[in-house]
Amino acid sequence: MDDEKSRLDRVIEAAGDRVSRVGQEVAQSPVVTATRDRAGAVAQRAQRVALSQLQVATREDVARLQASLDRIEAAVSDLARKPPSERPKPRSRPKPADQG
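-> structure tokens emitted (100 positions)
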């Protein structure tokens, strides 16, 4: 029984070694390497195309929005410091005409 088990262990070990060698040979194959490189390049191109289709704000867009926000905050702050008598009156909305 021990002899059979040791044979089985040797066969399993030999098979594992063979699988490992074949894996290394495949990984070093020029065809596999070229295919892997092409696949990586295609993936990068696809990612660039996908990102170009998104409407992502640029740094300039963010800077313009920040400047606008700063101006609005300054105007609100100025209004808050003025006494109520100096504040502009709220705009009145036109009343809708009777439709009846």
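The radius of gyration is 36 Å.
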